[in-house]
Amino acid sequence: MPKVNEKVQDNAEFENEDFAAMLEESYKKTERDEVGEGRIVAIKDSEVFVDVGRKSEGVLEISEITDENGNLLFKEGDSIKVA
Hints:
Strands 3-2-1-4 form a four-stranded antiparallel β-sheet, with no helix packed on it. It has one helix and four strands; from the N terminus they run αββββ. By secondary structure, it is of the alpha+beta class. The model has no long low-confidence stretch (mean pLDDT 78). 33% of the residues lie in helices and 28% in strands. It is elongated. It has two domains: 30 residues; 47 residues, CATH 2.40.50.140.
């Protein structure tokens, strides 16, 4: 293998190892019971869609954001605590 290709190959292996370490670290930071801030992006029928960051959305049952009379406690755009 020519020298230039060896350097490229060595660099690619380093980048793969570095990416694998970063990916593993990101899993550690997203504990299942971690409490964070989410933003309600849509309320449709019986589901509430929440942007929880990290390029993902969560879905809640509408009963989780209603009072005992069935009134909504939050609206689209509101921030809420999520786990």
